[in-house]
Amino acid sequence: MPQSNNSDHLLSRIEKLNSIGIALSSEKDSSRLQEMILTSAKAITQSDGGTLYTVGEDNHLHFEIIRATSLDIKMGGPAGEEEVNFEPIPMYLPSGAPNDHWVVVYAALHDETINIPDVYKEQSFDFSGPKNFDRNTGYRSRFFLAVPMKNHENDIIGVLQLINKQESGNGDIAPYTREDQQLAESLASQAAVALTNKKLIDSLQTLFDSFIKSIATGIDEKSAYAGGHCNRVPALAMMLANAASRENSGPFKRFSMSEDERYSLEVASWLHDCGKVTTPEYVVDKATKLETIFDRIHLIDTRFEVLKRDAHIRKLERLLQADEEQKQAIEKEDQEEIRQIWSDMEFIRKINHGVESMNPDDKERARQIGKRTWANSKGEHEPFLSENELSNLQITTGTLTLAEHEILKNHVNVSSKYSMPCRFPNICGMFGNMLAHITNVWMARATRMV
């Protein structure tokens, strides 16, 4: 081949290598990225077959993608017709010695590209596997190129193994040249960077997802009355999104979501209640109308006991001065008074739990009970119910006062103020009303306002 043709051919391969590097850096899916690395390495070195191995934390080389064009073998990856089911290759023997008789292991452990000119003449490595494969299939595994993939920290993260360079046009196979090796090494370096970046991005995303889920779980744990709301909303949101995507008619006929849009919606769903970290627990977890840092119903129970005690004392004082006929009337009056105290006590305990709708008669009865007086520890008479207690007991629905409702609703403003802006406002806006409806239903349930 003339010198100019050689130069043009090399330039073309370098340009192709640059294009491959750009494509690798933009791929977001790990499986597609691995497949692209192997197919690109095969293409740039004109290889018939190839295998991509990754180094696992178990110190084994794991088969990820296998391709053989002449045998139409496609294993692993998005385009794979079957899964790779080969056992991973141990990098160390049970004794702890390096497993150097495997060419791919040697390349990984010694950070060295191994170019095998003829498998059937090679004595340094064990090629019994490829030879058995050849006997069973009629294939001829002759030329091997094993290239380690090293990341920015000089750690070997995988190995590219290429088989049988094909001569252009005639279908013959040939050894890998120094130029082939250099191009494969350059591609392996770019591939290692792409894989490391993808792994780093995935790790950061996993960390971020764990963080926001921890926040959501923590908010749910603040109150048993949340019913797992923060964990259920993302599931409901994605169910709504999937249902809308499947629609072939109506307002969602043309609706669809990319993977980025789906992830954005899911993150927004997890974060929709993050503002509740600022909501006081006495509001989020207010189980009864009288609850603050404790349920004040116990204070009112004590007052009822004081009323019963005073009634009993009055009865005894009257009995001392009464005749037999008067005593019967006094006992009857006392029994009626105690019965009324018990009735009022049970009534207050009942309405303290909150109801779907408190009727006007119950509100009036609470007012009448509140007007009664009782003698405190100083002997001073004061209203049976304080203004705050009566106000709380007369809450129409649920357990929260209007002021407490405003405190609870403020979490929406906090979430909006400090959470990240939605990457896809149209998508988030479309489902915002749906999620808001779910949230309102939960709030109603949480405060018994269904």
Mind sketching the topology for me?
Elements: H1 3-26, H2 30-45, E1 47-55, E2 60-68, E3 73-75, E4 89-90, H3 103-110, E5 114-116, H4 128-137, E6 144-150, E7 156-166, E8 173-174, H5 178-221, H6 229-246, H7 259-271, H8 281-284, H9 297-321, H10 324-352, H11 360-371, E9 373-375, E10 381-383, H12 387-393, H13 402-418, H14 425-446
Helix pairs in contact: 1-2, 1-5, 2-5, 6-7, 6-14, 7-14, 9-10
Overall description:
This protein has about 450 residues and is α+β, with helices and mostly antiparallel strands. The protein has 3 domains: about 5-200, GAF domain (Beta-Lactamase), CATH 3.30.450; about 220-285 and about 405-445, no CATH class; about 295-400. Helix content is about 55%, strand content about 10%. It has 14 helices and 10 strands. The protein has helices at about 5-25, 30-45, 105-110, 130-135, 180-220, 230-245, 260-270, 280-285, 295-320, 325-350, 360-370, 385-395, 400-420, 425-445, and strands at about 45-55, 60-70, 75, 90, 115, 145-150, 155-165, 175, 375, 380-385. Strands 1, 2, 3, 4, 5, 6, 7 and 8 form an 8-stranded antiparallel sheet that branches. Strands 9-10 form a two-stranded antiparallel ribbon. Helix 2 packs antiparallel against helix 5 (about 180-220). The longest helix is centred in the middle third of the chain and has 44 residues, at about 180-220.
